[in-house]
Amino acid sequence: MIKSSVSNCPVPTEQQPLNEYEELKSSWLFRDCTLNLREYIAKIAWIWGIWWLVAFPVAAASFSPYKQTAQFILGSLAGASVGVVLVLVRLYLGWSYIRDRLMSPIIFYEESGWYDGQTWMKPEEVVTRDRLVVSYSIKPIISRLQMTFAGLAVLFVAGTIVWHLV
């Protein structure tokens, strides 16, 4: 995976930004962001459903499902959405960290522990390669996450309006 131009790189293999990107891309939660749109929405729906199992009893304890049906439904929907927001924040922070590491011309790394941090100036070809990875692979993922946040915000606003109307 690593090109010969990086063979003299002093950064440990697991701390090289391109390797960090490959590791993140293949990890179980973060790889969901790389799926096609239909599969991505399905994964978000699954996450929402799992969180709904937690939010449903809380909403039932807060609002009587028979007397305050609208509040019960809106409360359980909003409660489950909080879990989705937490997962999305984790995804966003992970992808943003990798984006920043790839975009930076200087890499901070640790040789053997937290006490001996070093920096390495990337050669121009490595900077160009890393920025291409960001442009074509990471920016679309971050845009997708931002659109998901925007969609959830619209749903929260719509839920708030409905809450006040009922």
- In DSSP terms, counting alpha (H) and pi (I) runs of 4 or more, how many helices? 4
What's the overall average pLDDT, rounded?
92
Structural class by sheet pairing and helices: mainly alpha
What fraction, in percent, of the residue positions are helical? 55-70%
Please give the domain count.
1
Q: What's the Cα radius of gyration?
A: 21 Å
Distance between the termini: 58 Å
Query: What is the strand content?
Result: 5-15%
Number of strands: 2
Order of helices and strands: HHHEEH
Low-confidence stretches: 1-5
- Give the neighbour order of strands across the main sheet: 1-2
Please summarize the sheet with the most strands: 2 strands, antiparallel
Which of globular, elongated, flat, extended, rod-shaped describes the shape? elongated
Which properties best describe this structure?
166 residues, mainly alpha, two-stranded antiparallel ribbon, 4 helices, 2 strands, disordered N terminus, transmembrane, CGLD27-like, transmembrane helix, membrane
Give a brief description.
With 166 residues, the chain is mostly helical. The chain has helices spanning 17-26, 37-62, 69-103, 124-165, and strands at 106-110, 117-121.
Give an overview in words.
InterPro entries: CGLD27-like (IPR009631). It comes from Brasilonema bromeliae SPC951. The chain crosses the membrane at residues 45-66, 72-93, 145-165. This is DUF1230 domain-containing protein. Pfam families: CGLD27-like. It is a single chain. This protein has 166 residues and is mostly helical. It has one domain. Helices cover 68% and strands 6% of the residues. The chain has helices at 17-26, 37-62, 69-103, 124-165, and strands spanning 106-110, 117-121. A two-stranded antiparallel ribbon has the order 1-2. Strand 1 and strand 2 (117-121) form a beta hairpin. The model is unreliable at 1-5 (pLDDT under 50).
